[in-house]
């Protein structure tokens, strides 16, 4: 796929070159940053655009002039000169008929390329509706001119933004003629265009639409007008019967004042100012004028020529940028819608194989013509042969062991006293087996040898199971002649003399304890307390070694200091100087 088909070509008309049209176009396209998504083509004049480039200090950015759309460069901003600009004088903020005529020539050539499919969409800059009037242009605005060129009678002036979308029943019509344009057919056609545009152009599959009333307070139940009862409400009921989410009529002032517009995807107003006044208050910076119902895509910024700020480099290009992006989005949404219509999937069931079952059902003859097969007769249950019983393990024959098996085939390296494996006795049924251990006692005996339960010895007289080193019960004597438990003392306790015969135990604090040096301590002497050093007293000076004493005497002799001066007087106090 070529680059031309990857990026749509968007045409942009110059508009009135004495207004802010050239300024917002250059600011929106400056730096070629939009060329990653679209290929822009300006229908205007290289002379006029270069004049504004120098005025706004855009000398580092170059435009690409071409003679026709066939020479477009997809990496640059292309400019097609649509009128003779050799004698053109740019006067920002001034109303001139030359600017109006130039705007018409740019629009005419752009619409021609749009009809021929050379460009994917058209973005129109603001024009002066008075200076553009001529023998070739007798329309109140772009919308009516495009509808006439595309021979379309079903169109809608649709003001769109990210937050709010408003369509109007009567567009550029004087207020005195608004009532004559409000009838059921007009309201129904505009509602149809809104539903279609929201689905195909903006991807809203089930739109919610609010309809405003014509009169103040929506007529006050006929007190201020009957248009709501006679015209608007019947149309709303017709759309609701067709499963469309259409609501109203709402009073315009309360509808926007309470913020109810946030609950709907679009709003249908009855006349121009009823819809555009709240729209420009809520979405003036990013609002776009979109012409719905045309076979081609056309958008425009929602502001005018703004002669009062033209040429001052203060115009905001936000609405122009949003118009370009909206045109790009609508082009892509329409392509997706056409692909869905061309490759529409057949409605199928979620259950697998339902189509095959339906096909088989269609091929069957009618029910009354089908041959009904009689049900086969069944043998009564009493006459049926009994089912064979399942074979038990005893009935399964064992394999015969041949007699010529060598003796080495048996295990013979068993410990002494054990019989070889081949000589082990055959084990019979479980009831005929001998006990596995003879010392198990009653639990190892056969159940048949135990006797009835009432003749057995009680559990409490048998003692605990597997108790070792206990004499037989018959040797223990009667239970009432045994020594009581409290007289026998604790179990496994060594023989100890009675408590009365034991020597008295000395008090624990009077027992002799060995001293640290190993000598016994005299218990009659009181325990001396451990002496702890007083931290406030000066520590004793350790004695000096003989070498240090000699060294100190030598130092005193050299310095001529007697020992009396260095010795503190015994009568002196520590805190007072010695008295001589």
UniProtKB/TrEMBL annotation:
Superkingdom classification of source: Bacteria
Keyword Transmembrane helix carried by entry: no
A molecular-function term among this protein's GO annotations: NAD binding
Keywords carried by this UniProt record: Metal-binding, NAD, Oxidoreductase
- Show the ranges annotated as biased composition (Basic and acidic residues): 342-387, 424-538, 562-580
The record's InterPro entries line, in alphabetical order, gives: PdxA_fam
Q: Where is this region: Disordered?
A: 342-580
User: What's this protein's name?
Assistant: 4-hydroxythreonine-4-phosphate dehydrogenase
């Amino acid at each position: 796929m070529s680059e031309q088909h990857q990026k749509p070509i968007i045409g942009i008309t110059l508009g009135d070159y004495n207004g802010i049209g050239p300024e917002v176009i250059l600011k929106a396209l400056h730096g070629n940053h939009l060329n990653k998504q679209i290929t822009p083509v300006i229908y205007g004049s290289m002379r006029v655009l270069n004049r504004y480039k120098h005025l706004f200090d855009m000398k580092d950015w170059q435009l690409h002039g071409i003679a026709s759309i066939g020479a477009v460069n997809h990496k640059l901003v292309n400019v097609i000169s649509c009128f003779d600009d050799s004698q053109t004088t740019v006067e920002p903020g001034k109303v001139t008929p030359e600017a109006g005529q130039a705007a018409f020539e740019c629009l005419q050539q752009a619409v021609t390329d749009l009809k021929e499919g050379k460009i994917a969409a058209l973005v129109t800059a603001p024009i002066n509706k008075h200076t553009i009037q001529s023998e070739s242009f007798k329309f109140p605005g772009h919308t009516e001119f495009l509808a006439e060129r595309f021979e379309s009678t079903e169109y809608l002036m649709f003001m769109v933004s990210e937050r709010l979308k408003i369509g109007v029943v009567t567009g550029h019509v004087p207020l005195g003629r608004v009532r004559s344009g409000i009838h059921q057919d007009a309201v129904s056609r505009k509602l149809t265009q809104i539903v279609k545009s929201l689905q195909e152009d903006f991807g809203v599959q089930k739109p919610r639409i609010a309809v405003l009333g014509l009169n103040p307070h929506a007529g006050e139940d006929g007190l201020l007008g009957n248009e709501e009862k006679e015209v608007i409400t019947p149309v709303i009921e017709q759309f609701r019967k067709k499963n469309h989410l259409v609501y109203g009529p709402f009073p315009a002032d309360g509808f926007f004042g309470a913020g109810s517009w946030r609950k709907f995807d679009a709003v249908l107003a009855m006349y121009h100012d009823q819809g555009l006044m709240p729209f420009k208050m809520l979405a003036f910076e990013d609002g776009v004028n979109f012409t719905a119902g045309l076979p081609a895509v056309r958008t425009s910024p929602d502001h005018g020529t703004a002669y009062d700020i033209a040429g001052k480099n203060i115009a905001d290009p936000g609405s122009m940028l949003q118009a370009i992006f909206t045109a790009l989005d609508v082009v892509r949404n329409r392509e997706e819608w056409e692909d869905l219509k061309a490759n529409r999937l057949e409605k199928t069931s979620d259950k697998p194989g339902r189509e095959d079952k339906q096909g088989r059902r269609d091929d069957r003859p009618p029910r009354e013509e089908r041959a009904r097969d009689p049900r086969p007769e069944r043998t009564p249950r009493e006459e049926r042969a009994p089912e064979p019983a399942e074979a038990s393990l005893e009935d399964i024959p064992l394999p015969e062991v041949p007699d010529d098996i060598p003796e080495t085939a048996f295990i013979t390296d068993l410990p002494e006293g054990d019989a070889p494996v081949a000589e082990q006795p055959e084990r019979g049924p479980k009831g005929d087996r001998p006990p596995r251990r003879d010392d198990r006692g009653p639990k190892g005996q056969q159940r048949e040898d135990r006797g009835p339960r009432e003749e057995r010895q009680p559990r409490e007289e048998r003692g605990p199971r597997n108790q070792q080193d206990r004499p037989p019960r018959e040797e223990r004597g009667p239970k009432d002649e045994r020594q009581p438990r409290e007289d026998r003392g604790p179990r496994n306790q060594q023989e100890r003399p009675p408590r009365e015969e034991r020597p008295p135990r000395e008090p624990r604090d009077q027992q002799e304890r060995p001293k640290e040096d190993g000598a016994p301590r005299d218990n009659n002497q009181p325990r001396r307390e451990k002496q702890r050093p007083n931290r406030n007293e000066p520590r004793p000076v350790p004695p000096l070694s003989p070498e240090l004493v000699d060294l100190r005497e030598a130092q005193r002799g050299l310095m001529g200091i007697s020992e009396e001066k260095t010795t503190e007087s015994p009568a002196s106090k520590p805190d007072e100087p010695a008295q001589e």
